[in-house]
Structures are given as structure tokens and as C-alpha cells.
Amino acid sequence: MDRSKQKQHQQNEKQAASAGDSSVNGHFDGTAKITNRTGLPLAGSGETSGQSSSATESWREERTRSLEDNEMSLPSIAAAYTAILRGLGEDPQRQGLLKTPWRAATAMQFFTKGYQEKIIDVLNDAIFDEDHDEMVIVKDIDMFSMCEHHLVPIFGRVHIGYLPNKRVLGLSKLARIVEIYSRRLQVQERLTKQIAVAITEALQPAGVGVVIEATHMCMVMRGVQKMNSKTVTSTMLGVFREDPKTRDEFLTLIRS
Predict the structure, then answer these.
(1) Which of 24, 35, 65, 79 is most enclosed, with most CB atoms within 10 A?
(2) Is the dihedral of CA 88, 91, 93, 95 positive or negative?
(3) Would you say the pTM of this structure is higher than 0.70?
(4) Candidate list 57, 109, 147, 194, residue with the active-site label
């Protein structure tokens, strides 16, 4: 790296090392406050008063990070990784680790690139008027995300179904919605709702169903260390929630 970046990297490293730790039992003492403007019923949310406002984001929410932000924050993220390596008992100056902080910083920015994108940008030119009212399903969409509690991977498959109300969405855009929301720090329950709500707000369909089956490395690599465990979450909106036959048809088709 050039001399100016090196100097900035060293300054950021000192700041990271001296910063106070605000974590409690491995979790940072602070929560992101995300306003839910959808007004939609969320199936099986199990939310108590005061929690529902942070459950979902509207598809119209502005992106929270730009490419310029990435460039500006890269030195401080790399400095933080240097401090982590030193805290683990490693020597960040040894040959194999010299570029690791920068590699890890750019990788983390890629893993969370969903913060740079807006759903509305993806969907604006892909919503079509179509006289079709039968179920549309895209299943086995690969999903990679990051657990917001431990910053380790979540990976699995997403199944999406909806009943059009004279409007359909380009099929690849369903996968793009999954990509945008999954490439953020997540919990699986919230991710499932965000996908369903985004489709509902975009198309106003008769109903939407989303099912996610995922493996959490925080369960596989640490804690209970259960190698074959999977977590399944679902969100059903509209007729997918109200009509058992519609819901059963969707669940049968994604399992076939």
C-alpha cells in the first residue's frame, strides 16, 4: 500500500485498539432501529409491543452505504482486523498475514454489499401487467448471509411463491431480492419477512409465501456444534396465510 494509506491505516489501528468494548456476552449493546412502514400483517412474527417496528425494512428505504463509503471506510476496517489478529496472538507483520487485514476488509464489504443496493432500483423496469392469476414459484434460490450475532456465515436455499393480481415480476428479480437482503448482517427470521414484504409492496399480489432452509455456522462451528442442523423459517402473507389449501399447495410444490 502507498505511504499515505499506510499512515491512515496505522492511525485507525490505534483508534481501534483503544476503543472501548461495548459488548455484553458477545453481543454489542445497541440495536439498529429500522422503521416498518409497510402496515402489512406479518405471519407468525411473535413480536411484542415495541419490537415490530424493527422487524422489516420498506423496499423504498434508501441504501445506507455507497461505493465512496467503501473506499473511505476500508482503512479503518483493515485496522480493526489488524487489531483482531494481534488480539488472537498472531503477528500481523509476518509474511502470510501482511495483506490479510485488507483482504478481510474487502471481503466483508462484499459479504454485506446489500447495504449498497435498493430494491426499487432492481424492480422498477421488471414489473409487467399480465392477465395471470395462478401461483408462481421460484425455489432453491441459493442464499449466503452473515449472522449478525457472531459475524459468521449463514447459507441455504430460499423458496418464493406468489399469486399474481394482474401483475408479475421478472423471475430473476426474485433472486435479486434475496441477494440484496441476504447480503447484510441478518437473522433468518427477519430475512424471511423482508423478502415477503418487498414482493408484497412491489406487486400487491393476492398472497406471498417465503420459506428459507439454512445452515448457521454459529451452530456448526461453535456452541452446540451440530453439523447437520438446519433452520427453517417461513412468512405467509395474504391468501397464503388465510387459505390452508393455497398454503398447502405452495408447501407441496416446493418440496417436490
Answers:
(1) 79
(2) negative
(3) yes
(4) 147
Choosing from 8, 116, 213, 218, which is the catalytic residue? 218
On average, the pLDDT of the chain sits at 82
All residues at 6 or more sequence positions from 1 whose CB lies less than 8 Å from its CB, including other chains: 9, 102
47 has catalytic annotation: no
Which of 4-18, 37-51, 119-133 has the lowest average pLDDT? Answer: 37-51
The C-alpha atoms of residue 233 and residue 59 are separated, in whole angstroms, by 20
188 labelled catalytic: yes
Does the annotation count 149 as an active-site position? Answer: yes
Which one of 179, 189, 194, 216 is the catalytic residue?
Answer: 216
Please compute Rg for the chain using Cα positions. Answer: 21
Beta bridge partners of 158: 141, 212
Of 249, 113, 133, nearest to 176 by C-alpha is 113
123 pLDDT tier (thresholds 50, 70, 90): confident
- 55-81 tens-digit pLDDT: 344 555 566 888 888 899 999 999 999
Q: Where are the alpha helices (DSSP H) in the chain?
A: 3-18, 67-87, 100-111, 119-123, 171-182, 188-203, 217-220, 239-242, 244-255
For residue 248, report the phi and psi dihedrals to the nearest 5 degrees. Answer: -65, -40
Residue pLDDT, tens place only, 126-185: 999 999 989 999 999 999 999 999 999 999 999 999 999 999 999 999 999 999 999 999
Domains of the chain plus CATH, in order, are 67-114 (1.10.286.10), 121-254 (3.30.1130.10)
